[in-house]
């Protein structure tokens, strides 16, 4: 057999194996009166649901049936077997059971059935909704009575709605645009986007991005294996996620983020912030209240914090700029760099440099195996400076107006001072204690 004949035979066999499909369509419509206060209940599967709310007191149902099969009689029989139960304020789609053929009949004439029903429903704008669907999307536009939507395998979209919205779905994306009232979304495997909500927002999802923007109330998000974004929240924001970044901006209330394996970025927080993660950096800027930041294996970069700051990390650098009040910093295996702290500083590290520039308050710095550099601004107050390390140098820079009683000792290193009196600077009276086991100590003058 030639290659050409073999190819023709193969195409002929494929044509026999995949017969032409026959498609059948039909429509159903019905209008029902609605009584104020009635909840409209819709039970459907295998198709999309589109709901539009308008003024009035009538419910208008339209169903568009589409069935395809290898045999037209099979398609017609199945299409005609689809029924719709309509009562005062409820709608239910019923499908016939697929006819089972014998083995030889299935082999010679496969049923190869495909079907869907799209629902288009017009409801009174004040009517509450209870919608249940599977294997199809749900869209609701302009409804003002609140909704409970459960969808097993499909997306959900709400636009221009009012009332309490509760949404549950799987394997589909959820989007809410412009709702007056609270929004609660649970999505097992899909993304969630919620924008312009006059009320609180609660989101739970997995394996998809969660994003909330312009919500006037509190925002609470739990995401397993996905990123989180929140912007312009009028209340408190609480986030728990893993294996994805968390980004938050412009929050009027407090902020709490717990991230197991991902980055954290936060800016313009109107109250306190509590941030923790592993294996990802933390970057935070402009916090009106106190800041607590913990990172097991990553860096911390904090700036413009007007409350107290507690920063803890391992295996990553800690940086702080313009921290207005007391600062506590602990780093097991990384550097600490603070610029212009406004009050007392307590810093402890191992195997990383501690550098504190232009400090205004007292300093307590301890380092097991790293250098310490402290630069002090001038002032009339007495701010004690204490620093100790091993196997690295200590350097302190002081203005000429400083007044310290100096105690500087090193077991195996030199002690040098640019001031004329090694034990007293200026009038003295303020504590300067520097201890080093195996490194040098240097006290330098710095310009005012």
Task: State Rg.
Answer: 34 Å
Shape: elongated
Count structural domains.
3
What kind of sheet is the major sheet?
21 strands, mixed
Unreliable spans: 3-17
Structural class: mainly beta
Count of DSSP H/I helices: 3
Helicity range: under 10%
Q: Alpha-carbon distance between the termini?
A: 98 Å
How is this structure best summarized?
With 448 residues, this protein is mainly β.
Molecular structure report:
The protein is built from three helices and 42 strands. With 448 residues, the chain is mainly β. The chain folds into three domains: 131 residues, no CATH class; 153 residues, no CATH class; 113 residues, no CATH class. The strands form two sheets. It has a 21-stranded mixed sheet.
Which terms would index this structure?
mainly beta, 448 residues, 21-stranded mixed beta sheet, 54% strand, 3 helices, elongated, disordered N terminus, 42 strands
Task: Give a topology summary.
Blueprint: H1 3-17, E1 22-33, E2 40-43, E3 49-54, E4 58-69, H2 72-81, E5 83-86, E6 90-94, H3 103-108, E7 114-124, E8 129-133, E9 138-141, E10 147-151, E11 156-162, E12 165-169, E13 174-180, E14 183-187, E15 192-198, E16 201-206, E17 210-215, E18 219-224, E19 228-233, E20 237-242, E21 246-251, E22 255-259, E23 264-269, E24 273-277, E25 282-287, E26 291-295, E27 300-305, E28 309-313, E29 318-323, E30 327-331, E31 336-339, E32 345-349, E33 354-359, E34 363-367, E35 372-376, E36 385-389, E37 394-398, E38 404-410, E39 415-417, E40 424-425, E41 431-436, E42 441-445
Parallel strand pairs: 2-6, 2-8, 3-7, 3-9, 8-10, 9-11, 10-12, 11-13, 12-14, 13-15, 14-16, 15-17, 16-18, 17-19, 18-20, 19-21, 20-22, 21-23, 22-24, 23-25, 24-26, 25-27, 26-28, 27-29, 28-30, 29-31, 30-32, 31-33, 32-34, 33-35, 34-36, 35-37, 36-41, 37-42, 38-41, 39-42
Antiparallel strand pairs: 1-4, 4-7, 5-6, 38-40
């Amino acid at each position: 057999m030639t290659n050409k004949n073999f190819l023709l035979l193969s195409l002929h066999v494929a044509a026999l194996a995949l017969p032409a499909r026959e498609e059948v369509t039909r429509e159903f419509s019905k209008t029902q009166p609605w009584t104020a206060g009635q909840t409209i209940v819709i039970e459907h599967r295998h198709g999309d649901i589109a709901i539009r709310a308008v003024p009035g007191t009538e419910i208008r149902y339209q169903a568009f049936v589409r069935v395809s099969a290898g045999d037209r009689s099979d398609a017609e029989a199945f299409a005609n077997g689809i029924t719709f139960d309509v009562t005062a304020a409820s709608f239910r789609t019923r499908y016939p059971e697929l006819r089972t053929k014998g083995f030889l009949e299935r082999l010679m004439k496969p049923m190869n059935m495909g079907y869907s029903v799209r629902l288009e429903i017009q409801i009174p704008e004040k009517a509450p909704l209870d919608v249940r669907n599977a294997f199809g999307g749900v869209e609701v536009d302009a409804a003002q009575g609140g909704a409970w939507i459960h969808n097993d395998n499909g997306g959900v979209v709400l636009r221009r709605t009012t009332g309490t919205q509760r949404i549950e779905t799987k394997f589909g994306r959820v989007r809410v645009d412009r709702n007056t009232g609270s929004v609660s979304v649970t999505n097992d495997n899909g993304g969630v986007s919620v924008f312009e909500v006059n009320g609180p927002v609660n989101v739970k999802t997995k394996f998809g991005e969660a994003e909330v923007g312009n919500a006037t109330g509190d925002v609470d998000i739990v995401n397993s294996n996905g990123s989180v974004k929140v912007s312009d929240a009028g209340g408190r924001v609480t986030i728990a996620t893993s294996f994805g970044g968390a980004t938050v901006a412009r929050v009027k209330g407090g902020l709490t983020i717990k991230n197991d394996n991902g980055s954290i970025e936060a800016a313009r927080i109107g109250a306190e912030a509590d941030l923790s993660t592993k294996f990802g950096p933390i970057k935070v800027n402009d916090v009106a209240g106190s800041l607590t930041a913990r990172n097991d294996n990553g860096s911390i970069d904090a700036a413009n914090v007007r409350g107290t700051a507690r920063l803890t990390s391992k295996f990553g650098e800690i940086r702080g700029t313009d921290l207005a009040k007391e600062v506590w910093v602990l780093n097991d295996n990384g550097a600490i760099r603070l610029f212009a702290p406004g009050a007392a500083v307590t810093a402890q590290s191992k195997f990383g440099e501690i550098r504190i520039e232009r400090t205004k308050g007292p300093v307590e710095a301890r380092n097991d195996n790293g250098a310490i550099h402290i630069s002090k601004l001038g002032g009339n107050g007495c701010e004690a400076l204490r620093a100790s390390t091993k196997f690295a140098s200590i350097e302190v820079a002081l203005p000429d107006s400083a007044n310290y009683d100096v105690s500087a000792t090193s077991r195996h290193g030199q002690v040098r001072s640019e001031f004329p009196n090694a034990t007293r600077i200026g009038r003295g009276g303020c504590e300067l204690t520097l201890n080093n086991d195996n490194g040098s100590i240097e006290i330098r003058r710095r310009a005012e």
